Amino acid sequence: MSAFGQILEQMVLRVPGAVGAIFADWEGEAVDQFAHIPPLEIQLVGAHWGVVFNAATQFLQKIGGGGIEELWVEGDSALVFVRRVTERYYVVLATSRATHLGTARRELERSAQSLQREM
After folding, report:
1. What pTM value is reported for the model?
2. By the 8 A CB rule, do 89 and 74 touch?
3. Domains and their CATH numbers in the chain
4. Which of 23, 73, 96, 113 is 20 to 30 Å from 44 at the Cα level?
């Protein structure tokens, strides 16, 4: 497992209710991942939420709102967190709805910093 994968694994293990995480580039291509779900599923989560994150960032910049550092979506049974690592890379964390928001956000930020240092 790469250093990136180890960072993602530790994040998933530190967030109760987390199902997986993926580190991806601006095109949604996976750099590395760790998940309790099939690899293709976490790759699809990463790619799709990367598109949403990039579109939201472009829109906000277009209207003068600056860039987005973090985005999270609350569904009926799941939470998805996306955080910028660099201008061209992001990390996605998928969790159950019962996950503590503060814990997930703290670990996502910590992991994004670790991923950036590892680059």
Report:
1. 0.93
2. no
3. 3-118 (3.30.450.30)
4. 113
